[in-house]
Amino acid sequence: MEFSPFDKRGYPTVAARIGYRGWAARYEATIAAGLDGPLLDDLASIDWMNLATAVDLACGTGRTGLWLAQHGIRHIDGVDVTSEMLEIAKIKHVYRHLHVADVAATALRSSGYDLCSMVLADEHLAELKPVYCEAARLLRHHGIFVLVGYHPFFLMNGVPTHYHRPGGEAVTIESHIHLFSEHFQAGGEAGLILVEFRECIIDEHWLLTKPKWRDYLNWPASFALLWRRG
């Protein structure tokens, strides 16, 4: 679904490539750490230390790549559509290779990875099936796809993914609402098996890192899906 019927803020909207180019310099200082880190920490169906290779789709500034490296994955490739984000990812020195490419058409080698991750990006995709098919193509047999997303509940309540330009103007990054049934269907059609599903609820501990979100106490902020290639 398009986000526009739910929009309550009316910020100007830009495409993902343009939005993340403008957000790159301040992204890590402003993104809510509670959206992704706690969910990755809580995934119970994965032994990170036994994964040798990973591809980080929509890797952005490398936050997820750094987390993966800290949990034992030694060979990580990153893909993003925004070169400005990749320049920041490069200085983390955790990626083997970084590529400017569409997450649904990476041109990377098939069956080359134990793990594929995509964090806080699915809402910018008009269709889910292409990226699920790409993840399945990239994974080895029994490989794992971890998708962490911004909760559709937030989008349906009119709170878009957005950032502020240097002058203070708020800008929405083009977003689409995907119900969980769409994820389930897209993953299944790509030959993936859903192993684990978690949701992150904003609580008092969560608010320690982002106190301005107090109005959203007890809202579901994000979710994680762990898939295995059959």
Describe the structure.
Helix content is about 25%, strand content about 25%. With about 230 residues, it is α/β, with parallel strands linked by helices. The chain has a 7-stranded mixed beta sheet with strand order 4-3-2-5-6-10-9, with helices on both faces. It has a 3-stranded mixed beta sheet with strand order 1-8-7, covered by helices on one side. The protein is built from 9 helices and 10 strands.
What's the average pLDDT?
97
Low-confidence stretches: none
Helix content: 25-40%
Strand content: 25-35%
Provide the spatial order of strands within the biggest beta sheet: 4-3-2-5-6-10-9
**SSE order, one letter for each helix or strand:** EHHHEHEHEEHEHEEHEHE
Q: Terminal Cα separation, in Å?
A: 29 Å
- The shape is globular
Biggest pleated-sheet summary? 7 strands, mixed
Number of beta-strand segments:
10
Q: Total number of helical segments? A: 9
Structural class estimated from helices and strands: alpha/beta
Rg of Cα set: 17 Å
List keywords for this structure.
single chain, 230 residues, alpha/beta, seven-stranded mixed β-sheet, three-stranded mixed β-sheet, 10 strands, 27% helix
